[in-house]
Amino acid sequence: MEKKVFSIQGEEIRTLELADEVFNRKVSDGAIYYAICSELANCRLGTACTKTRAEVKGTSRKPWKQKGTGRARAGRRRSPVWVGGGIVFGPRPRDYSWQLPRKLKRLAMKSILSLKVREDRLKIVEDFSVASGKTRDLKAILKKLAPDERTVIVLKDDDVLIKRAGANLPLVRFLSYNRLRAHDLFYGRNILVLETAAQKLNDFYSGSTAEASV
């Protein structure tokens, strides 16, 4: 398929051939779902911790005798039914992360890219950088390319200056072509892909390996 390439002034300057396998394939909703769930799960710290009855501070002495008081039986003040006692089945430190199969992750990324092309939310832009590293220079470029919505810019490499310029823009995210994130791509309202990054995406995600079907 062919896709128009825009200049940083927002004008069409040429067309670029994109691989149908990457940008015009059948969208797998299941692959997208599992990719996003995996990323969100991997972000969880898993540090929440409560104390059981064996860990809370308190005496283990029986508060009153077993019979004859008219009150319910009680063994120790650290019991979960007492105020200040231990917690039953509370959260404990754990690892929430889980690994997504490589083929499924690649399928998810290609499905999201194809979905954004169909929704006309993906735009190919000529390679540019922000030599000054200043936010106002990047805002001037984005004003002509994308409205004031959540925007994802796919870079050809780790451009430090353009990332510095966008550090103060809460609606802008930067991704490298070989380290895409399903969550950012899927929820991005505007996807700006640098021309070289689009060509690298063609090579990176095009292959002869069998794809998973979801």
In short:
With 214 residues, the chain is α/β, with parallel strands linked by helices.
Question: What would your notes on this structure say?
Answer:
The structure is a single chain. With 214 residues, this protein is α/β, with parallel strands linked by helices. The chain folds into 2 domains: 2-44 and 96-205, Ribosomal protein L4/L1 (Ribosomal Protein L4, Chain: A), CATH 3.40.1370; 48-95, no CATH class. 33% of the residues lie in helices and 14% in strands. Helix 2 (29-43) packs across helix 3.
CATH architecture title of the largest domain: 3-Layer(aba) Sandwich
Q: Biggest sheet, strands in spatial order?
A: 2-1-3-6-4-5
Strand content: 5-15%
Q: Can you give the helix content as a percent range?
A: 25-40%
The residue-averaged pLDDT reads 91
Main structural class:
alpha/beta
Q: And the CATH topology of the largest domain?
A: Ribosomal Protein L4, Chain: A
Main beta sheet: 6 strands, mixed
- The parts where pLDDT drops under 50 for at least 5 residues are 208-214
Oligomer: single chain
Assign an overall shape. Answer: elongated
Number of domains: 2
Number of strands: 6
Order of helices and strands: EEHHHEHEHEHEH
